[in-house]
TrEMBL record:
Protein name: DUF839 domain-containing protein
Pfam families: PhoX
């Protein structure tokens, strides 16, 4: 059995899970049950093997890039973050991001687009528990690099732009011509289920490389992650002027803050952490969350403009913050390249040399805890999106160098392999994204982000393991 497909090395650390035992370089061996060995399983849609799953699990892919929405327009690619809401008759309502960069033109109805030149946005689908599409449509268009986001308690999705492209900024790494864009990008947008999206950015929540959003129902705060590949990233919270559940929507005009470690200015949390690490925290204000620029400054300058304000006030430093999820008073968020580079692992480019950390911020206590740090790529390789099951087990989507997995991190602290992505010929960059459990926990919906992206419904004997 491949060691990447049934991991057995774990060590105990103190963390947000009661009595957690998390993988680390200092650990002894302990068997991890998970759901058992993975085997190739054929897609019920067309018979192709796309996933390797434990015995008893089945799946169907749907809404492939290039397919048609119910209105006849084409489904865009680069499927990314996603959330599932309850729909009629045991169906699920999925809101899904499309991480499309560059001035390639909006999908769907361009008259409704925020920026008719931008090709990203979201789609909304009603599907059965078995991945059969009932209806589908574009729900937000004309945005850009919609990477992740998060579900909101008032039946809405917040979509995040992982870019600061715009006509006021020099071109980014992709080589796209920003002068063709008509609007500034780098914001978050609300996508409600019961009404049309306004396509109005929440500018007070900042203009930076937004990744994920996690809502705290007790305070109304929205916690935001930043994925700044080449530079330090920060952990933020947006405090709307009115509790969104009371307002029925997300209002602009609030306050943006950045997390700092109490008593330790600019604490570098991107490096390896000792097992049991926990910090008291404070929040620092961002005075100018949506700064104006003149003369089309370099993209690298603009993408750091908000974060630098926070770090000047002492905000903590992270490496590539990506997925985030709220669960029972705690926001779990992922640092994709946090930690230490293990001997034998490839040295990574970008800011941060580790293979991934999972952090836990307790909204009720203000404590920040290390939930997990990967000891090497064979155990966990560059985690990205994250979700939680009803039992509190985390699902981590990998975006690694080799085979990519859906890995589980149980409340007992065990990391295990649940699903492996079959390599896609000619597309080494294919990865998992957007994992989310449907109503009642019957189905795990997940995306394959690839040149020809798609969504997948997975179901089976969940009761047999920690999900």
């Amino acid at each position: 059995m491949d060691r990447r497909r049934f991991i057995t090395n774990v060590v105990a650390i103190a963390g947000p899970f009661a009595g957690v035992a998390c993988a680390g370089a200092q650990g002894g061996a302990k068997p991890v049950r998970g759901y058992g060995q993975l085997r190739p399983v054929r897609d019920l849609r067309d018979g192709k093997v796309r996933l390797h799953l434990p015995d008893g699990f089945k799946y169907r892919s749907f809404s492939v890039a290039g397919d048609k929405f119910s209105d006849g327009s084409a489904v865009p690619g680069r499927h990314d973050g996603m959330a599932a809401f309850s729909g009629p008759k045991d169906s699920a309502i999925l809101v899904r991001n499309h991480e499309v960069n560059g001035p390639v033109g909006a999908f769907g109805d361009k008259d409704k687009a925020y920026d008719p030149m931008a090709g990203g946005g979201t789609s909304t689908l009603q599907v059965t528990r078995y991945g059969e599409v009932i209806k589908s449509a574009p729900s937000l268009n004309g945005t850009m690099m919609n990477c992740s986001g998060g579900p909101m308690a008032w039946r809405a999705w917040v979509s995040c732009e992982e870019t600061v492209n715009g006509p006021d900024v020099a071109d980014d790494f992709s080589g796209g011509d920003n002068s063709k864009l008509t609007k500034k990008h780098g914001y978050i947008f609300e996508v409600p289920l019961g009404r049309a999206a306004t396509a109005k950015p929440i500018r007070s929540a900042g203009r930076f490389a937004h990744e994920s959003a996690a809502f705290d129902p007790s305070t109304g705060a929205i916690y935001l992650t930043e994925d700044n590949f080449a530079f330090p990233s920060g952990f933020y919270r947006y405090l709307p002027p009115k509790h969104p559940v009371q307002a029925g929507r997300l209002l602009d005009g609030g306050r943006l803050q950045m997390l700092a470690v109490k008593g330790e200015k600019r604490k570098d949390l991107s490096v390896g952490q000792r097992p049991g690490t926990a910090y008291a925290t404070v929040w620092v204000d961002i005075d100018d969350p949506d700064p104006a620029f003149t003369g089309r400054p370099a993209n690298d300058v603009v993408i750091q403009a908000v974060g630098k304000q926070g770090r000047e006030e002492g905000a903590a430093i992270f490496s590539r913050l990506e997925g985030a999820v709220y669960h029972q008073g705690t926001v779990y968020f992922v640092s994709t390249q946090g930690g230490v580079n293990a001997p034998g692992d490839t040295i990574l480019s970008g800011f941060g040399k580790g293979r991934g950390q999972v952090w836990a911020y307790e909204t009720w206590s203000g404590r920040l805890k290390l939930a997990y740090e990967s000891p090497r790529s064979s155990v966990l390789d560059l985690p990205d999106n994250v979700t939680a099951s009803k039992r509190g087990t985390l699902v981590l989507c990998e975006d690694g160098d080799g085979d990519n997995y859906l890995r589980g991190l149980s409340k007992a602290g065990e990391i295990f392999d649940f699903c492996r992505l079959e390599p896609i010929a000619g597309d080494d960059g294919a990865e998992f994204a957007g994992s989310t459990f449907g109503p009642g926990g019957h189905t795990l919906y997940v995306n394959i982000q690839a040149r020809t992206g798609m969504s997948i419904a997975i179901w089976g004997p969940w009761e047999r393991g920690p999900f």
